[in-house]
Amino acid sequence: MSLPLPASAASAASAPSGPELRDIHLPPPPSWWPPAPGWWVLAALASLLLAWAVWRWISRQRHLRARAALLALVDDALSGTEGRPQEAAAALHALLRRAARRLDGGGGTLRGEAWREMLERVPVDAAVIDRLTDLDTLIYRPAQAIERDALADAVRAWLGAFADQTRRSGANRRARR
Asked: How sure is the predictor about 12, in pLDDT bands with cuts at 50, 70 and 90?
């Protein structure tokens, strides 16, 4: 059995003993903008990497277009020489000499071993070099059986390697500046 409390004690128990407290308020969630400085650095690095990749891709596409145009010159030189092997050999030889002048200013006038050494500056197989040095003498032999397609393939291989070497040496020259 419980005893009744006096009226003054009942009012004291229901009265708060200190200040009235409110619920806890959480801070607002962090804003996504502006990002922290580390994100800015990361974004700058990602932008630089993307710009470099785009530049390399554009540079590669230009090189591939220039290389394809250079190799198309072989087909242009051979057009209209079907059945005339001497003219085909002379056209391929003239194209090779024009390209050699870009490699060496006096490359268009070299003969014999000097011509072979100039051709060997471009990294291709020895068989290609042999075929190209034979081309130097084939144009002076009338009625000679000429393997037109094999010669054209050798010229294409040399010109393709020449284009790749020119691209690499251009990149090396730019890096040295």
From this structure: low
